[in-house]
What we know:
The protein is of the alpha/beta class.
Amino acid sequence: MGTIVRGSGFVVGEHTVKNEQLARVMDTSDDWIRERSGIEQRYYVKDGTTTSDLGVRAARLAMEQAGVGAGDIDYVVFATMTPDYQFPGCGVLLQSKLGLGNIPTLDIRQQCTGFIYGLQVADALLRAGAAKRLLLVGAEVHSGYMPWKDHGIVFGTSDATVTDEERAFNTKYRDRTVLFGDAGGAVVLERTDEDRGLLAVKLHSDGSYAEKLYVPSGFAWRPYVTEAMVREGRHIPEMDGRQVFRMAVTKMPEIVHEILAANGLSIDDVSLLIAHQANLRINESVQKTLGLPDSRVYNNIQKYGNTTAATIPIAYDECRRAGRVKPGDLVCFVGLGAGFHWGAALLRE
């Protein structure tokens, strides 16, 4: 028996934002962004669209592909670091919007590895009989972290301009803000008697690196948000980019080999590697270390940017719909992110 993906789907924010558009609010350029990240564009939501809204839209597509309705889902696991509210989490909001009834919902916060952690949680719930058919969602609205006051300037829907002072403030954060986009991905998971599905998940965490990638505000302060914090930009993620890069290019190949060895497999058995889409330069380094050709690796950060918990389900759905994964193929998911958390999963199609 195994846990299989019965359906998948994803959605993005309503506004396409190309690199050149970000130059309207800070000192950057298409060349500067592409050279450092490989990103060409990303999507931002329109005002009023929330993380749970994106999760609902993606879930509907996954449920449609799976051929199931609201009454067929008996558990929700929702991974995000950008919830609609401080509390409650997005799981119960999605449950209500989809009309799923009073089924249990669970919210997890493992940032860029949220979907991989979610796979292990979902598999455990299904194996234990706590659920028969589960909805796993990863969604983010990162545009809320952006320091500029008027998104319409970036969208091209506003005639306003930023002041020199605002441009300088926005430019302080360009190494992070150019990376992120808004999107949601979802899968319908269920147990099967078939000899395929999720083979294994391997996870690690190291909290000694927590402040290398974090938001420096919250309940460690009293009150947890102040006007001064906003003026100082403490609602915007801080990142030690060099440390994140070093950890990612080291730990991601390591854990791929670790999970393969633990299951009597090798890198030669992997049909397709789908890594978290944080930075194309990271993924290119991981690919080189693992010795994989382009035909066995999938990247789409160029189109969507880093969508955190949504990157892996988006890439996986694109590969399923395009025929990049076929029955019998071994797919390996891998990622590293804030925490630091990192992990890998093996799925037999």
